[in-house]
Amino acid sequence: MKKVLALIGTLLIAAMAFAGCGDQQAAKDSKALKVGATAVPHAEILEIVKPLLEKDGIKLEIVEFNDYVQPNLALNDKELDANFFQHEPYLVNFMEEHKEVKLKNAFGVHIEPMGIYSKKVKDLKELKDGAAIAIPNDPTNGGRALLLLQKAGLITLKDGVKEKATVQDVTGNPHNFKFQEVEAAQVPRTLDDVDAAVINTNYAMQVGLVPTKDALVMEDSTSPYVNILAVRVGDENRPEIKALIKALQSKEVKDFITEKYKGAVVPAF
């Protein structure tokens, strides 16, 4: 009898050990990705990607941010596996200012043409002398906004400054426009107080603006500011990241962008 009980005990211990190994193996085999994104359109696009990744056994967790600084810091600190909210010029400038950050462009997903909006005028020619114009205050998007204002014929910039332009590089301002530099996410909320504002498409859509209908002027589809999936240097070859890139360039994602945003967001693949 003692031998039988001893045998049963041994079998129970073995079974528990086997179950424990099974649990550990299941945990090891489970795959997950945590991706930081701004709400519109990035998080919306990632929602389309979720079921595509599930087919590969990868669970996608989307972490939403409402600024352009924390997603890169969180990714660099390994709190995220990737982020999706910025274009490469912004990332390059960010890493110049934050030397500890080592990220790279893994894939270009879409273009969000920046636009000029106003609640005061229906045509930029109606802007009066001394009109106030809000632009993003971060270096890359600020320069991009100034380039768009130049393209619209409102100002002239110093030769060769391109996306690095600042308000100090405005060499021609015949109507003496006043520039208010505001955090990109807050620019749409200045529309009641300024005469015009240059707004990133994702933030315009978050406040109910329809870029193709409400913008007085927009960048065209040749804009170099492709929104990218960013990862830590060295992670671009991780199988889960490769699966995410494959899902982002799928027909499902391209069709969603085209049908959902109707030209306000343009696929870049």
Plain-language structure description:
The protein has 269 residues and is α/β, with parallel strands linked by helices. The protein folds into 2 domains: 28-113 and 224-267, Periplasmic binding protein-like II (D-Maltodextrin-Binding Protein, domain 2, 3-Layer(aba) Sandwich), CATH 3.40.190.10; 115-218, Periplasmic binding protein-like II (D-Maltodextrin-Binding Protein, domain 2, 3-Layer(aba) Sandwich). Helix content is 39%, strand content 24%. It contains 9 helices and 13 strands. Strands 2-1-3-12-4-13 form a 6-stranded mixed beta sheet, with helices on both faces. The chain has a 5-stranded mixed beta sheet with strand order 9-6-10-5-11. Helix 2 crosses helix 8. It starts with a helix and ends with a strand. The model is unreliable at 14-29 (pLDDT under 50).
Which CATH architecture of the largest domain?
3-Layer(aba) Sandwich
Strand portion, in percent?
15-25%
Helix content: 25-40%
The CATH topology of the largest domain is D-Maltodextrin-Binding Protein, domain 2
Radius of gyration computed on alpha carbons: 24 Å
CATH class of the largest domain, please?
Alpha Beta
Count of separate structural domains: 2
Average pLDDT for all residues: 90
Total number of β-strand segments?
13
What's the CATH H-level superfamily name of the largest domain? Periplasmic binding protein-like II
Tally of individual helices:
9
SSE run = HEHEHEHEEEHEEEEHHEEHHE
Q: How far apart are the first and last residues' alpha carbons, in Å?
A: 72 Å
- As laid out across the biggest beta sheet, the strand order is 2-1-3-12-4-13
Biggest beta sheet summary: 6 strands, mixed
Unreliable segments of 5+ consecutive residues:
14-29
In terms of quaternary structure, the protein is: single chain
Structural class by SSE content: alpha/beta
What is the overall silhouette? globular
